[in-house]
Amino acid sequence: MKILLVGSGGREHAIAWKISQSPKLEKLFIAPGNAGTKSIGTNVEISDTDIDALKNFALAREIDLTIVGPEAPLALGIVDVFVETGLSIFGPTASAARLESSKSFAKDVMKKWNIPTASYKAFQDPEKAHAYLENLNYFPTVLKADGLASGKGVYICQHKSEALSALQDIMVSKVFGDAGTTLVIEEFLEGWELSAFAFTDGESISDLVAACDYKRVGEGDTGPNTGGMGAFSPPRIWDQNLKDQIRDLVIKPIVEAMRTDHEPFVGTIFAGMMITETGPKVVEFNCRLGDPETQVILPLLGNDILEIFESCVNRRLNSVKVDWRKDASVAVVLASGGYPSAYSTGYPIDGLTLGGDSVNIFHAGTKLDEEGKIITNGGRVLAVNALAPDINQAADVVYENIREITFRNMYYRADVAK
């Protein structure tokens, strides 16, 4: 099969790495890719949001299947355009992807279908949102930009003054652009946080896998939110009972809701969950694999990933038994100093040749310079992953290997999975 993978981050390198293991693979193109994907397939200089150029490339190269990594192309309707052109593509339509691109839409669907989630109010008028917050008596509370904000559009506010400041940022100053046209204010949930993933063909769902990620830049969960500083799988509280609850209360109902009321959701359902004293509750849905969660869960996948993608697109997922290994997996992100605020790039990276079959380095913000040397090219630069019989051993292996990698102003959290 000739495959086109859309995206350029650590998630896409992990997907490309897994695709490269498939006996079905004939040729792999990654648009635009990074220095890591270049060693697996052929990078193509097309932006992941240039839908027409991606479509034309897929037609010209007679691509058999396109896989979409990031959320932005899905929200822009890449699946709709490809399907209309007769091209096979893995991912939800723009309408189905509203589960991620509009938090208020997702909340309304969950409310109608009794899917457990935090109580909420949605506002399009800043003055009405301001009045609501002025009368709010319980804190902390959570304010969210309705649209896509690269994982950074969420404010957990401890006091009314923080909430009013967040409202100003989101709806008035528009720090997240049009994503802040609608504001969601919701109940703060306490408990264990985890992400649950399942593949779906719009009707059937695969066996679930779960991971925990680290969103804040600083150790001890301090500092601003990031795209993710590390992850591990499985969560320490993950067991068959919890898996069954999330499948029956969340994943199956949301797939049924989309098929019944909207459009069938084909792709990867990613449920951000809080496991509270009263059971699992959805924090948010995403419509693709997560980053950096992908870098810990795909090394645990026992199947040919192309077979899974094909079966979802062809509506026959029930013919494939998705198998997740019982090992533990940990990934730690190496970032540019200053991330997620201002940072510099263009620094050479040394120590990328690591030993051991259980250790992987997934590239995110990297590229090749004119001499072919791998240099930094983003805020999150690399993710170092390791598998082991338990979480503690996997974390130890990761940190041992991180000590071999260097680039100027390298930063990472030392408490991932600890």
Helix and strand arrangement:
Layout: E1 2-7, H1 10-19, E2 27-32, E3 42-43, H2 51-60, E4 65-68, H3 71-76, H4 78-84, E5 89-90, H5 98-101, H6 103-112, E6 120-123, H7 126-134, E7 141-145, E8 154-157, H8 160-172, E9 183-187, E10 192-200, E11 209-213, E12 216-218, E13 222-225, E14 230-233, H9 240-261, E15 267-276, E16 279-286, H10 294-297, H11 305-313, E17 328-336, E18 359-363, E19 366-368, E20 374-376, E21 380-388, H12 391-402, E22 410-411
Parallel strand pairs: 1-2, 1-4, 2-3, 4-5
Antiparallel strand pairs: 6-9, 7-8, 7-9, 10-11, 10-15, 11-14, 12-13, 14-17, 15-16, 17-21, 17-22, 18-21, 19-20
Question: Could you walk me through the main structural features you see in this protein, from its secondary elements to its overall organization?
Answer:
This protein is an alpha+beta fold. It folds into four domains: 2-93, Rossmann fold, CATH 3.40.50.20; 125-181, Dna Ligase, domain 1 (2-Layer Sandwich); 192-319, ATP-grasp fold, B domain (D-amino Acid Aminotransferase, Chain A, domain 1); 328-411, Phosphoribosylglycinamide synthetase, C-terminal domain (Glycinamide Ribonucleotide Synthetase, Chain A, domain 4). The protein is built from twelve helices and 22 strands. The strands form five sheets. Strands 10, 11, 14, 15, 16, 17, 18, 21 and 22 form a nine-stranded antiparallel beta sheet that branches. A five-stranded parallel beta sheet has the order 3-2-1-4-5. Strands 6-9-7-8 form a four-stranded antiparallel beta sheet, sandwiched between helices. The protein is globular, with a radius of gyration of 21 Å. The chain starts with a strand and ends in a 7-residue tail after the last strand. The mean pLDDT is 96.
